[in-house]
Amino acid sequence: MVLGLVALGMAAVAEAGFAPYKLVGEVAGAVPDLAAQVETAVGGAGFQVVGKFSPGDKPDAQMVVICTHPMVLQAIAQSGDNTGFAAGLRIGLWKNKAGKVEISYENPEYIQHAYFGKKVIAQLASTVSKRLGDALATVAGGNQDQGFGGNLEGDDLAKYHYMVGMQRFGDVVTAGEFASFQEAVSTIDANLAAGKGGNKLVYKIQIPGQEMVDYGVAMDHERKYLDIIGSRHIAAQPYSLLVVGKKAVTLHGRYRIALHWPELTMTTFTKIITTPGNIADSMKAVCSK
Fold this sequence. Notes:
Blueprint: H1 2-9, E1 17-18, E2 21-27, H2 31-43, E3 48-53, E4 62-68, H3 70-79, E5 89-95, E6 101-106, H4 108-116, H5 122-140, E7 146-148, E8 152-153, H6 154-158, E9 173-177, H7 181-193, E10 199-206, E11 212-219, H8 222-229, E12 239-244, E13 247-250, H9 253-260, H10 266-270, H11 275-287
Antiparallel strand pairs: 1-8, 2-6, 2-7, 3-4, 4-5, 5-6, 9-13, 10-11, 11-12, 12-13
Helix pairs in contact: 2-5, 4-5
């Protein structure tokens, strides 16, 4: 199916903007119970659930369920480079001030325009987004399909940076270099299992037919910056570490945080000035030999 969508999508140009998140609905209930319902719903819709965790270890207030889909993985395998950062589809459950649980998801159209750039398959991104929203609607009792968190056009996402002098998608941080792909994966697996550097495994996605693995990593310091910049964007988590061949890379914090919180003011950004460095250190610890 992806091959059929490529012909349509490669030439597609996004005229309208995309929000980083889609709100499906607000429901009453316990966050862990609703997360279990989300797992069942997306699993029944053809998605593969690969992980679940509570950023900042607050399971009664917020959780993230991560899944993937064969069409997304095939597109990544065809496109290569660092498009593997798009492998995990993130679903957020966040209890708001009214006591309702907001069910939202990281918008595949937003992310794929940012991570695939000119290689984006627009039709694929919109198809995945619709299927995910429809699946989550069975838990939320309908789909509000309401974008939130900002709005950027596809062409702007492909070259996004927060401001002049700050990093773009291609300005990755090298977290580790290894003698082989197998050494990279075995080293990272062992370090995450041991909780090295206060980091834990959330998910691991192997890209079919490629020496590429996308890791979702829970960091022990993420609660500090989420409490400052806003946990409603909980579907931004966890942070990704991507192994491509003999190298492990991660997106620069000044790029990824800005991409997922594009409305963040410079005043607020300066309050987390040490966070990009802390993230890089966490990923390097995961890759240390």
